Amino acid sequence: xxxxxxxxxxxxxxxxxxxxLLVVVIAYMCYEACAMMPYMWIFAAIITIVLLWAIVVAxxxxxxDKEGNxxxxxxxxxxxxxxxxxxxxxxxxxxxxxxxxxxSGGVYGYMGLFRNAEIGTFSSxxxxxxxxxxxxxxxxxxxxxxxxDLSIFSELR
Length: 157
Fold this sequence. Notes:
The protein is 28% helix and 37% strand. By secondary structure, the chain is α+β, with helices and mostly antiparallel strands. The strands form two sheets. It has a six-stranded mixed β-sheet with strand order 5-9-10-8-7-6, with no helix packed on it. Strands 1-2-3-4 form a four-stranded antiparallel β-sheet, with no helix packed on it.
């Protein structure tokens, strides 16, 4: 069973505005690099890599197969979690007090490492913390994912 990761209006707005801004900045830096500042190519390359990383790891959805294995679908790859490694799946408690350690805090999603008083340090592939679930795994940090249909995890809870 597959469930998309729904985007909020705020996430969509921020992602579009940041993308436009970064494309303009990259174009300007490339223009300046051609004109008089050759080191601008380096800055333009770094910004391009960061933008491409955010797009590539943007969450698309989550699926649970017949055996109970969970797959997190990202734009460029998939992350598979075997059923035997899943301890429990619960709703995400609250994003209040959640801090981003590294990653994207709202451009194409909330991806990366985050810290929360209730969960501790966790990996996130979320687009809306209000519709997110926490997947606790054996001997690994929890993963937070967003799904439109919470019932896909009903047999894992």
